[in-house]
Structure formats: structure tokens, C-alpha cells
Amino acid sequence: MPSILDLIGERRDSGSRSTSKIDAYTLVGVSFAVIGELFALSFYLIVKSIPLTALGIAISVVGVSIAMIPQSPVPVDAIRDMVEEACINVELVLEAYDASEKAWYMPARDGRVCCFIPLDAEYKTEAVWAASRAPVELLTEPMGTRGLMVYPPWSDVARLSQLSDEDGLEDSMAYVLIDFLEAAENVKVQKEGDRIKVSIGNPRLRLELLRFNSVLGSPTVSVLGCVAATVLKSPVRISEEMVEDKNLKVNFEVLSHG
Amino acid sequence: MDRQKRFALVLCGLEMATVVSLAAIGEANLEVYVSLIAVSYFTTSALIHPRRRWFDVVGVVLFISLGYIVARKML
């Protein structure tokens, strides 16, 4: 089992974050700003055309605005590192108990979504419902099924993003991932009975923690698990996660009321 | 599409539409152009709330320009 220092060390070594390079926004923005200024000055002083001068000013305004856009808006490196290190704690717990079953995201209690991870391969779905009502303890045993209960680092994302009960599943997922966290470019949701198929365009949150990813799902998908459990008020688990080009395809399984 | 890209696209479209519309109606006063460019910038910023890496330099410059234009008209 890797130690926490090994895991943090791996993250530090593999983190090739470059802040000194000029990013695309700066390059395009400065180019627009300079071209716009030259355009405005030359048309004002030489051609004496007011509309074309104004066009140059407008291009400059757009250029400087683009140059001011941060390359990676959210999460910033420091926040991302903190989230990653919070995930390492969960990873260590999962390693310690050799958890390998997919986690169930429980309906939110006090605004926080907790995950129940069965330690036994065979278990009844009633045990999952019982876990959703049982007191939150690291090691729990609802209806004789041994399992772990952990809070993912984004357990209260639904509360923080102020989702309302009227919001549908697709609107909630899209709002949290695109507008609130800015962790993806688009989200498409398709619900078929107790299955939910989600396609996430260009997800930006990534983690190299194998156990965490296989049990709780990758960070972006895990965030959606929390949202789905909160909106549907039912336990939800990630049954399948696939990477296709720059997109993530995820299948969720919703536990119907027993 | 994230908020930053949406802001850049909407701002670009609105500024270009402003300049082209004013040019089409034959406006020849630069102050009118600058005022409307400022208004479209502030409207887009207020509606989309983009994140910036520094404070809003463009907003400050446009606000000062707009203040100067208004002050000149009033005095």
C-alpha cells in the first residue's frame, strides 16, 4: 500500500503546471489589442474616418478583455492541489479496507452527500437504503452488509451551488459542472428508467488515484454523482465510465425505492 | 461553453453590431461610438460576470472615458 507521502510526491512530480508560458488567451488578446490600436490611430489620423476609428477601438476593447481571461479559470492550481490532497485521504481509506465495489452516492443529509461503499461483493439493495438512513460512521454494517461511509471532497456541491428542488436533473448537472465549477464545457443527460446516461464534454478535473477513480469515479463524474443523488433523492452509483476523445461517457444506476 | 468564452463571443458580437449599426445610420461623432462601446461592455460584464486575472482595466478606462464625455456635454 503506498504511503501518503508517496502519493503526494507522485502528484508533485507529475504536476507539470506552467505559469510562465504565454497562454492562448493572452496571445490572441494582445494581438487584437495591438491591431485595434494601430487600426484606430491610422484611421483617425490618416484616413479621418470616425466609424473605422471606432471599429479599431472596439477591436482593442475586445482584445484587452480576452487577454484578461485567465487560462484555467477554475479550479486554480492551489485549490486543485487541495482537492487532490483531500482525495488522497479517501484513497488511503479505500486502500486500507481494500474497497473495490462501486460507491453508492446517498441522498444528501444536511446538504452533504455521503458515499456508501460495500465491502462485500454480494449485498442486498435494502442494505443501501438502510445505509442512507444509518448514522454516518467510517465503518458501518447496515442490515449485516459491511461497508465504508466517506464524504467525497465535493459532497456539499449541490448545497453550495444553491440548486433548487424545481431544477431538473440535466439543468442541475449542467449548472454545477459548467457554470458553478467550470469543470466541463457541456453536459448531456439522457434518463432511461433507472439508468442515466451522461456525456461530459472536455472535463477539466482529473486525478491519477486509481482506487479512488475505480470506486468513486473520476472527480468530474463523482461531482455529478453527488448532484444526481441530491436531485433524485435516491442512492445513485456509477456503473460505467468511458473516455471517448475529449469526452467522458458515464452511466449511472439509480436505486429505485424498495 | 464556459463563461469566459461566452463573454468574449458576446462582447465581440455586441461591439461589432454597435459599430456597424451606428456607421449604417451615418453617425460621425466618435463620442457616441465610445459611449455605446462602453455601454455594451458594461452590459455584457454585468450579465455574464467573467473571471479576470487582474482588476477590470478595460472597465476603468471605459468608465473614465464615459465620464469625460458626459462631463464635456454638461459643462
Short description:
Chain A has 9 helices and 8 strands. With 258 residues, chain A is an alpha+beta fold. In chain A, α2 packs antiparallel against α3 (50-67), α4 crosses α8 and α7 (169-180) crosses α9.
Main features:
heterodimer; A: 258 residues; alpha+beta; eight-stranded antiparallel sheet; 46% helix; elongated; disordered N terminus; B: 75 residues; mainly alpha
What's the topology here?
The complex is a heterodimer of chains A (258) and B (75).
Chain A: H1 4-14, H2 24-47, H3 50-67, H4 77-96, E1 104-105, E2 115-118, H5 125-133, E3 139-140, E4 147-150, H6 157-160, H7 169-180, E5 186-192, E6 195-201, H8 210-216, H9 219-232, E7 236-244, E8 247-254
Antiparallel strand pairs in A: 1-2, 1-7, 2-4, 3-4, 5-6, 6-8, 7-8
Helix pairs in contact in A: 1-4, 2-3, 4-8, 7-9
Chain B: H1 3-24, H2 30-48, H3 57-74
Helix pairs in contact in B: 1-2, 2-3
Walk me through the structure.
The complex is a heterodimer of chains A (about 260) and B (about 80). Chain A is of the alpha+beta class and about 260 residues long. Chain A is built from nine helices and eight strands. Chain A starts with a helix and ends with a strand. Chain B is an all-alpha fold and about 80 residues long. In chain B, helix 1 packs antiparallel against helix 2 and helix 2 packs across helix 3.
